[in-house]
Amino acid sequence: MCFRLNSAASADQSSMSSGTDEDDKEDEAAGGKLTAELPISRDRIPIVYRPEYGVRFLGLQKLHPFDAAKGGNIYRLLKTNGLIQTDGDVYAPNEITLEELLAVHTQRYIDSLKWSLNVAKIAEIPPLLFVPNCFVQRSYLRPMRYQTGGSLLAARAALESGLGWAINLGGGFHHCSADRGGGFCPYADITLAVKMLQSSGKGIERILIVDLDAHQGNGYERDLMEDRRVFILDMYNYRIYPRDQHAKLAIRRAVELKPHTDDEEYLRKLKHCLSQSIAEFEPNFIIYNAGTDILKGDPLGLLDITPEGVVERDEFVFRSALERSIPLVMLLSGGYLRSSARVIANSIVNLRDKALLPTVQ
């Protein structure tokens, strides 16, 4: 059922480094608002990725079902399919800075990430609590900061390139809010992207968040509770984590799914509710949180969507934006099957083949 809901009215700079003198010097030399300095060009493919997205932590990342190498696997498949020819064709983001994080996050929350116990809870990898924080910063939090920087860069590319779309091969940390992380989400990249777009001076006054991850996006919902310039369409399995009743007050259109919802029901509800939301809100930017934990067999999403259903889902969302000339940024969010990377790559190739990615031949 699709129904309308009304809303109710790390560390300091040193601990955000890898813990080595060499890396500290790199951070000091970089400084400033790094993502804002990267030029946006119409000649580049607006796909955002760099190898540092991958979480590698002596095998501990395997204790969580999340595919820590998903972005890299997708990138290689897109190269194999010819969509990307060289690394210079796409955007490589910088690591988000402390200054940028504090545009949304509280200092108290950033400081809490100095403690490995807190990070272990967020990452859902209990053994991390025994690991020195400098290694936690380097091997888990730093990749997440690169992905967060990637979300901001992708949003800028979608807005400024004139192409009208961008894809970050990571990000979508929708369980993280300004003062609390969780669900493998340590940084609030969606809230950060919203605030950046709103302050861009480019007339972005109505942002539609289309959250199609299998889980409720409670993090940014808590952050944006009172912001009427944002319309949230959240379509999720209501029987699973996080079941955040307070955050639900921020959702303007909720699509609550039962476990094992199949393609037919899923796509019918999506097409109706997304069309309805766009017509009602008339957004001038869309943030698309494209989780693939909706796939059948996913151990956490518990829905029954086929790979073909994911491809059709993404095609409908992109077509809805392109036909109305609404810039769209896609974030990958959750997806806990090893097959997710191939499904996402196939979906992006399909978007190219259907002429839904302008300039990509």
What does this structure look like?
The protein has a single domain, classed as Arginase, Chain A, CATH 3.40.800.20. It has helices at 21-30, 34-37, 70-80, 98-101, 107-112, 116-123, 133-160, 189-198, 218-223, 263-281, 307-323, 340-353, and strands spanning 2-4, 47-48, 165-168, 207-211, 230-237, 253-257, 285-289, 328-331. An 8-stranded mixed β-sheet has the order 1-6-5-4-7-8-3-2, sandwiched between helices. The radius of gyration is 19 Å and the shape is globular. Strand 7 (285-289), helix 11 and strand 8 form a beta-alpha-beta unit. Helix content is 38%, strand content 10%. Helix 3 crosses helix 12 (340-353), helix 7 (133-160) packs parallel to helix 8 (189-198) and helix 10 (263-281) packs parallel to helix 11. The longest helix has 28 residues, at 133-160. The protein has 361 residues and is of the alpha/beta class.
The CATH architecture name reads 3-Layer(aba) Sandwich
Number of helices: 12
Helix-strand category: alpha/beta
The number of distinct structural domains comes to 1
CATH class: Alpha Beta
Runs in which pLDDT lies below 50 for 5 or more consecutive residues are 6-15, 17-35
- State Rg: 19 Å
Q: Report the helical percentage.
A: 25-40%
CATH superfamily: Histone deacetylase domain
Largest sheet: 8 strands, mixed
Strand content: 5-15%
Helix-strand topology string: EHHEHHHHHEHEHEEHEHEH
How would you sum up the global shape? Answer: globular
Mean pLDDT across the residues is 90
How far apart lie the N and C ends? 39 Å
